[in-house]
Amino acid sequence: MWRRIKDWARAARRDVHALWLAARDPRTPWYARAFALAVAAYALSPIDLIPDFIPVLGYLDEVILLPPAILLAIRLVPPEVMAEHRATAAAAQARPVSRAGAALIVAIWAAVAAALVWWFWPEPAL
């Protein structure tokens, strides 16, 4: 059962990446591009309708809203375009992930956050 869930999650991630690519493809109709872009942006965005830190409710938008939206967006994109972008997304998934690159990005964000806190921290009254 866990294997099926993992396979489904990988396919969903691949399809969201393929929708992102299809949204930028000129062969995709404008309405499909707009919807695919909105679905991919929502799926990849850290901002949710219901924040994930809320127990149980936090993941409801991903479980209830996202799968039908992904399926509808896939149906709006022409099949040959979707097949091409699915292959590209699958190839991208097969590439190794750079943990050092991820650590560098996190370090940059932490440094920027620390600089902003330092910059805007109120001065003590004398």
UniProtKB/TrEMBL annotation:
Keywords for the protein's UniProt record, in alphabetical order: Membrane, Transmembrane, Transmembrane helix
Cellular localisation: Endomembrane system
Regions that span the bilayer: 30-50, 56-77, 97-121
Its membrane topology: Multi-pass membrane protein
Signal peptide span: none
Coiled coil: none
Xref: InterPro entries: DUF1232 (IPR010652)
Domain DUF1232: 32-67
Name of the protein: YkvA family protein
